[in-house]
Design brief:
Elements (H helix, E strand, L loop, with lengths): L1 E2 L4 H13 L1 E9 L2 E2 L7 H14 L2 H7 E8 L7 E5 L7 E6 L10 H21 L4 E2 L5 E2 L6 E2 L2 E3 L4 H9 L2 H14 L3 H13 L14 H14 L9 H7 L5 H13 L1 H4 L1
Parallel strand pairs: 4-6
Antiparallel strand pairs: 1-8, 2-3, 2-4, 5-6, 7-10, 9-10
Helix pairs in contact: 4-8, 6-7, 8-9
């Protein structure tokens, strides 16, 4: 059984980080265009928005992203976020740490990490928008039911529900539920137990961050799908997670588009 409240720690973690962020500014997005305000960082915000909107499919970015926030909490802390602005999941806020996401740097490692962050955050929009998740008042998810996330209940044919049914079953999901229920009321305990979960199941996860939740796991797998070559002979569950997305022609098309649009940064 999965409790919807198990995401309490992650909500707290995001909230806590936001209280110590240095917020540079907030801008509204209307009809795919940034609305300038009295900030002296309008040009910077417009640059980030136009580049994000150029790289990713505009049928999603223009439709769903209604606000952009520029902030920083220092290098390599919170690099970005994608946050739903309502329970319908049809309005989203994009957050970017300007120290971590720098597409003008000559540092190739930082450039690659910047693209990685943007692809990751777009993955949340792809897997959690209103065509994928519906509002619900459910607080419990019994075994075999549709996947329950903080944003709502996944549709049966959603990417996330299919991903969970394939890769988060049995002992792994049960252990994750126990961690959320018994340890995630303090950040230190939660992080320690999730790292243990990753260490004990390394062949199932592409990164340690993927073990944080199915929502992060699918997005880390999506990011690898976009940025890495196809695994021709998958031998681990982690490899199979990369190849999971090839069954969807629309995602293969998105991959081709994103790789083309980020080519100047990665080559």
């Amino acid at each position: 059984m999965k409790l919807k409240l198990i995401t309490l720690f992650f909500v707290f973690s995001t909230f806590y980080q936001s209280t110590i962020d240095k917020r540079i500014g907030v801008w509204q997005i209307q009809n795919g265009e940034l609305v300038k305000n009295r900030s002296n960082k309008n040009d910077l915000a417009n640059y980030y928005w136009k580049e994000f909107n150029r790289i990713f499919p505009q049928e999603l970015t223009k439709k769903y992203i209604k606000r952009i926030v520029l902030m920083t909490d220092g290098v390599d802390e919170k690099t970005g976020a994608l946050v739903s602005l309502n329970s319908r999941n049809d309005k989203w806020q994009l957050e970017i740490d300007v120290q971590d996401v720098n597409l003008k740097t000559r540092n190739r490692r930082r450039l690659h990490e910047s693209v990685y962050t943007l692809v990751h955050e777009f993955g949340h929009l792809l897997t959690l928008n209103k065509t994928q998740i519906r509002p619900t008042k459910k607080g419990l998810q019994d075994e075999g039911e549709l996947y329950l996330t903080l944003e709502g209940e996944a549709y049966k044919k959603s990417y996330l529900n299919k991903f969970v049914n394939l890769f988060w079953k049995g002992a792994l999901l049960n252990r994750w539920d126990v961690i959320q229920r018994e340890y995630c009321y303090t950040e230190a305990n939660c992080v320690e137990k999730l790292l243990d979960l990753y260490d004990n199941n390394r062949s199932e996860f592409l990164t340690d961050y993927a073990a944080e939740s199915p929502e992060e796991d699918i997005v880390e797998s999506w990011t690898a799908f976009v940025l890495r070559p196809k695994v021709r002979n998958p031998k681990t569950i982690a490899h199979k997670k990369i190849n999971f997305f090839y069954q969807f022609p629309e995602l293969v098309a998105y991959r081709k588009m994103i790789r083309q649009n980020t080519r100047k940064y990665l080559h």
